[in-house]
Design a protein that fits this description.
By secondary structure, the protein is of the alpha+beta class. It has one domain. The strands form two sheets. Strands 6-13-10-12-11-3-4-2-5-14-9-8 form a twelve-stranded antiparallel sheet. Strand 11 and strand 12 form a beta hairpin. Helix 5 packs antiparallel against helix 7. The longest helix is centred in the last third of the chain and has 25 residues. It is globular and about 60 Å long. This is Aldoxime dehydratase. GO terms for molecular function: lyase activity; metal ion binding. Keywords: Heme, Iron, Lyase, Metal-binding. It comes from Pseudonocardia endophytica.
């Protein structure tokens, strides 16, 4: 058994863990490991928004264009594409790319075929909107957790290896305990979301320190018939209910944006993988919902009911927090409740 925090990231704690030193987790889990040269990563959520089946072809072509720009020099080391329908009735296609070093991402993003396309006034035309949600946590600001040991999705795919069985899981607050920064910092929120103008056209949302992002995923591609049935009929409906609650009611409890997405190929066909993309005002607000809200307690209880029956279903998550300067949110031709736009205030001079 080892700590989720790698040895080179450990330091004398000024803040204690949520469990005693002799705690033993109820089942095995692992985390991704990275060499010391990984000091900060980039996670770029690049979205296409449309409404109505008549605009789907244009949206998919836009998605394929974005993915095509990954082929130029300095593209991401990992990416995947998803689809979801938001509670305003708009369909959203999102491709997320992961870069191991911010300098590589910056080089890619500055290329004319990338920045020129995103900044063009052409993006303000047509029947689709686009958005960029770019976050860049330092190595001490994110954690991972996996119920499997190879083929990691998300940020784990650009890391270097895997831990042995870890101590910090299976209890409330364990995600915080896996994050190196938690050894000395509460990672509390400060400031507010604010737009640089009205919530239409091209809008940039200015972030605050310690916004929290969770990606929590499920992969049943390799599950057998019985296990797939167990997941889709017993587990997934409970999970979906919790995700829908956060999508529709998250504003009151500190959840800025919640998207329950399904993997797709570049023709829009679904793949048997899903994950949640949740932006929270701060990690403590995510923790409070997880520990106390009935919608999450039902998910947690259902998981423990079936965990011993799961063989091929892959479960994982990654949780990150960010400095204000390491976040960029831009929405072009999108509806005003998209992503971080919903909770951003308009400057008084423009209201």
């Amino acid at each position: 058994m080892e700590s989720a925090i790698d040895k080179h990231m450990q330091c004398p704690r000024t803040l204690s863990r949520r469990v005693a030193d002799d705690y033993t987790p109820p089942f095995p889990m692992v985390v991704a490991r990275a060499e010391q040269d990984l000091t900060q990563v980039v996670m770029a959520y690049l979205g296409v928004q449309y409404r109505g089946e008549e605009n789907r072809a244009e949206a998919l072509e836009t998605l394929r264009h974005i993915v095509g720009t990954f082929d130029v020099e300095d593209g991401p080391g990992e990416w995947d594409a998803t689809q979801h329908t938001d509670n305003s009735g708009y369909d959203n296609l999102i491709v997320v790319g992961y870069w191991r070093h911010p300098e590589t991402y910056t080089s890619w993003a500055a290329r004319p075929e990338v920045e020129g396309w995103w900044s063009s006034d052409d993006r303000l035309q047509g029947n689709v909107g686009v958005f960029r949600e770019i976050v860049s946590p330092r190595a001490d600001q994110f954690e991972t957790l996996y119920a499997f040991t190879e083929g990691f999705p998300g940020v784990g795919a650009i890391m270097d290896g895997v831990s042995g069985e870890i101590e910090e899981h299976g209890y409330w607050g364990s995600a915080r305990d896996r994050m190196p920064k938690s050894q000395t910092d509460w990672m509390s929120a400060s400031g507010q979301l604010q737009t640089d103008g009205e919530k239409s056209g091209r809008v940039v949302v200015r972030a605050h320190d310690n916004i929290c992002l969770i990606r929590s995923g499920q992969d049943w591609v390799d599950a057998g018939e019985a296990e797939r049935k167990l997941y889709l009929e017993d587990v997934e409906p409970v999970l979906r209910a919790g995700m829908d609650f956060l999508r529709d009611n998250g504003e009151a409890i500190g959840c800025y944006s919640n998207r329950y997405v399904t993997y797709i190929d570049l023709d829009g066909n679904p793949i048997e993988k899903s994950y949640n993309i949740g932006h929270w005002r701060a990690l403590d607000m995510l923790e409070r919902w997880a520990e106390s809200h009935p919608t999450h307690l039902r998910i947690f209880t259902k998981f423990f009911e079936v965990v011993e029956s799961l063989e091929k279903l892959k479960l994982y998550h990654e949780v990150s927090t960010f400095d204000a300067a390491d976040q960029y949110y831009e929405y072009v031709n999108c509806h005003p409740s998209t992503g971080m736009l919903r909770d951003a205030t308009v400057p008084a001079a423009m209201a």
